[in-house]
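Reviewer 2 asked us to include a model.

Predict the structure of this chain.
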Amino acid sequence: MSISDIITMIMIFASVATAIGFYIVYTKQTGAGVNISIGKFDLNPNGGGKVRNIQKEEVERSKLQEYLEIDDIENSIIKLKRNNSLRIILSISSPDFALLNEDEKGVFENALLDLGLSLNFPIQFFTTATKVDTKASAEKALAVTKDSDEAIDSKLKEYANLLYDRLLELENSRDVYVRKSYCIVGIDGVYDKKRSISELRNRVETVVGALTMAKMRVNVLEKEKIAQLFANVLNKGSNISIEHMLEHDVLSAYSVGDKT
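Predicted model (structure tokens):
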């Protein structure tokens, strides 16, 4: 399944949403194409020039990749259409700073300071608010209530049933969100493919190493997770699950063709 199919399916959901919580800011540059920012998500943070704001403007789903300047996503690397630009997105989970002791706070601050001093390339941090997803936990709780094992106490099943109801309530609530943080690491203008990818991975290792020293959990987003991030940004408040769509072969009956 190509990334085009995944992103196009995302836009099908976006086209029927009643409230899309995003705005697109793009920059038209001579010979440089269009620079896109979705909320605080900027795939080309070095762009400049005259900026036009577009709010609540319908975006043709077949044009999404053109607007985002995405050529493809392969091995967790986003390939942009201009300037041989590559991007990798890292998900970041940091400890609660207020709960750290003084020594831990010192380690945290020094690690970030060392990262800032060592950087000789741009990176970008951004945060999204994502609707809480309790499906997996709810299914586990439901499985306990239906388990025929006599060793499972009836009170445990009763608790599992209450937990299941509560998780469903949270899932259906429109006011329960979780914040997720990300970091974009990129490289531009290096036309030797092997050298470009090698340098990008070196940059990622530098950032990951420093953030890990600050006791942060860092993961490189894979293709499906990147598509999920786009779905969350473009469909704020929805419960679209790219993983669920792929597992249930939702796209098998969908095809892309030329307009007649």
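The beta strands are 23-29, 33-38, 41-42, 51-55, 70-74, 77-80, 86-93, 123-131, 177-187, 217-220. Residues 3 and 72 are 7 Å apart (CA to CA). We have added this to the supplementary material.
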